[in-house]
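During the reporting period the student researcher (J.K.) took over the structure-prediction task from the postdoctoral fellow and processed the backlog of single-chain submissions. One of the processed entries is reproduced below for the supervisory committee.
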Amino acid sequence: MKNKIIVSSLVLFIGACLIGIFFFKDFFIAPTGGDYCNITDIESSYNAEAEIAQALAKMKSSQDKATVIMRSNSGQRRIAITFDGLTDGTSMQQILDLLKKHNVKATFFVDGMQTAEDPQTVVNIKKAGHKIENYSLLGISKMETLPVERVVKDFSRAQKIIKVITDQEPNLLKCNDTNYTDQLLQAAKACGFNSVVKSDVFLNVKQMNSLLAADTFVGKLKPGSILSVKLKPNTEKIVNESGKTDLRPAIDKQPGLKELPQEANLGEKETIAAVERLLIAISKANYTTAYVEDFAADSSMQNPVKTTFFQNSINNVKESIHYSFFIKIASFLQEEFTSLFIGRTAYAAESVNSEVQEIKVISTTEPALSYTFGGLANETVVNDVLTRLHRLGIKATFFVAEVEMKKYPETLRRIIENGHEIGIAIRPKDGETADETRSTILRDSKKLQEQFGVATNLVKQPWGAVSDTTKEVIFSLGYKLIGQSVNVVQNKHKDYTSANQVMAEIFGKSMLSLARGQIVHFRMDYYANDRLVGDLAEIIKQRKVDNIAYATFYDNPANNLSNDSQYTIKPVGEILNNTRFIYRYPVDLTTVSAHLKNDGSEQMIDTHNFLAEASKRYIGNRDVNDNNNMLGFSKMDTRRLDKSGLIHTKDNVIFITFDDWGTDASVNKILYVLRKHNVPATFFILTHNVVNNPNLLRTIAMQGHNIGDHSDKHKPMVVRDPKTGKQVNTQDKEEYIQELATSYQKLLTITGDVNVNGKPMLTKFFRPPTLAISKMGIEVLFETGYEFIVSGSCNTNDYRAKNVPQLEKIIEDGVYTENGEVRKGAILVLHMLDSAAYTAIALDILLTANEAKADSDPSKFKVGRLSDYLIDGYSQISRKSLK
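J.K. obtained the following structure tokens:
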């Protein structure tokens, strides 16, 4: 009985503690937040002076050091993967997709500066379920050589930025290429880090150039290893200058950009490919993955003695392990309780209502994009920008804050007189209420209307992650929240002297052009060089917009008014209001025909009729046979499969098809040529990156071209094993089902509701990567609803062409027989890749020559749309033409 009383009392006591912490934990914990909406530089934005002072005081009063997590000694067959630094947002999303696909946990060590400049990417990492930890302010190396005060400032500032963006404080610190001295470990502990991390293995992207290399690399890993992938090259250590007490990193003080180490020259594509090979090899080696923090308990370095809950004062209680335990439980209960009655809490840059989202890319098929500008303080820069825009024929959107309306009214009037659009710039303070934000917007709107004669519904928060409160307020007022897809201004560029320096870091080698609907933002009151913004506006147009147009010596937009291939730069509002081109993304699936949404179950294909159906629905290629690129069929079976690649028809018709994916620079040229000659085509889309540019895919469909599927990752159904020489499947059945479902869903959500002349442009046609097929692959295609497998009669390999005449001859051989007759039903396999540099021109020459022929000329062909021929009832094994 006595024991029961003791147990009951203990339960009541613990319950009371939990309830107390549940309601009063904010009393013990300093609230997160900071002035992140006014980011100009680290000193003025994410103010961490209080944290720095507290950390320095702790160093004086305590000799406690952070532990070093080196590797795990648990004996389990697991490793921890870390990504150090950040790369561009697109590449980061690809890495997150790969981690999800292979079910891999990872720890991302992000530096404070890049987190401040690209908060959305860090939020995406958090949403994907990975751990976010601290990589110092800039990820600089050799930090052990810095004065301790400088180190504390670096750690604290980075910690504040990450805490504000993610609403949680990192527990781990990792320093780039740094020796963890006792002094540095004391500084880390004083700044709130229990442990620092030291990797024992680093991924060499150059050496990870094949699956075999990846297998070899992983085979040498030891269980418990911490494997790091550096996404950011080494940054020079901060240089001390006499007479300065609070210096920024040396990179901010350079008159120009120094040459980066060799690692920086590695392309994002190579890094992504290396990561994918690594993850495949890890899975094959039966390794599981863990977060680095999971290694803390069994790390190879012993943890220091920890203080207990009762040994700390109430001011230091949050550092106690007991208190942390209770806080975690209370936080969990609070989140669960809240979710039952309020719903899921949205992270920064996330909202339950999709209509409230920040518009970073306008969903439009119009061949146009926007320049936006902010910052009126430097009149010299503003005047220079206005002069340049006028000379280039560009109308832009200028976002103006309330204080700028008061200080620079004449400058604002000059912008308006030049015909530019005006939007409202707001900078809500941390903790600002919805009513305060609403009042600011309404006040600014009234001022613009009454004093400047401007009505606007565009609002922009120039810096920082936009809170859900701000989003809801803007939406409730019927305004549009405008962001940007390319932010030209970054903190480290302040003292750069030339546009080329900025261009190299903003765009890199992989971003060949801008795209429809993108918004490029410039800040006019930031750079030390007054001409830099104007230079950038010009050079971006020249190198990333003008290069999209189809411009040859015989057909150039400059002298051919009917050449409409040039993209224009327009104000944001003008593009948004052009409802002819605006669409909803993702599409409303209720508007999609039932035929496009079904999963193939109505086809009723089984083992008894599989071969017969495959024979009807497979349009093959002469290079695919039982000895090459074909698996699972007997020799007798292969005789029933088509190898001509020709559509059966009596018409002098050919079919033009394009594979893979490209940028606006390559695809727009092809679309212009097709439009110029009024011919349709079929685009077989490699979908892995298509969600990064849905406007381009939507445009293809809207211009009357069929959309087919070319897989998500371009994994062939069949490859030849280099060791055995035998043909093998690259994926099992479940993996291939998932691959196809992912790929088709992307196409459906972008083009599923596009109908031209009453017919859907999205098809259930599939082109196999490398044209290779397997029995299992075709079974899965039928099971998932695909109707025809279309290879083709002429694989041009146009991406390998050395010049236009060479490619022109290849295409002509695919269209005509040796006697000069049209190969009826010929299917040309071309590519929309950026590397297929001569495809559009060669096609233009072919179609121009064909148009010049008389209608009575038997060698004159017409170009057909595959969906008009591959209709219900068509059979590839029947020589009787349907058309």
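The committee noted the following: Residues 16-44, 238-266, 302-354 have pLDDT under 50 and may be disordered.
J.K. will present the remaining backlog at the next meeting.
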